[in-house]
Design a protein that fits this description.
By secondary structure, the protein is α+β, with helices and mostly antiparallel strands. It has two domains: 44 residues, no CATH class; 102 residues, GMP Synthetase, Chain A, domain 3, CATH 3.30.300. The strands form three sheets. A four-stranded mixed β-sheet has the order 7-6-5-8. Strands 1-2 form a two-stranded antiparallel ribbon. The longest helix is centred in the middle third of the chain and has 34 residues. The radius of gyration is 24 Å and the shape is elongated. 10% of the residues are buried.
Length: 165
Amino acid sequence: MENMSTVPSKSGRSVISLVEGMNDDVQVVRLEGDRFMLTAQQAIDMLCLASQGVRFQSQFTELLQRLYAWVEQRRARISAAYISVASDGITLLIVQRELKADFELDTELVDLDIEVVNQDEFDLVPFNTLLVPRVGNDVLKSFLSSGQIMSHQFNAEQSQSSSDS
């Protein structure tokens, strides 16, 4: 590691300067004793991924809050709301209260989709939306067939009130 400088920190650990594009090897030693070698570029890339993971979590939490608020404002026109988290991104699935198409709700959902996708604060969160008419559970399951599904709180309230009738 002749081109890489090591500087002792106040904690007694060594701080290694990583310069993007250099091919010097960096030895990484885990507390458990495992050792492995990385190029400086690989180390930089790994650190960037870790940083993006933290940013993604923050963006995801902020997006969920925004989506819950959006749904709350439209409760009277929505039968159920789901968020599907899968490898291809996050999908907000809205089930209309009525079978007849709600074009105004559709426009509002498209506007939400465009707003989220175009905001830098959500640049790490692949997002899309889907509006479906009120359908049976079997049909609904086909839209929610992959990924982790998060159901909005008022879905449970809707189920209780429809079983009380």
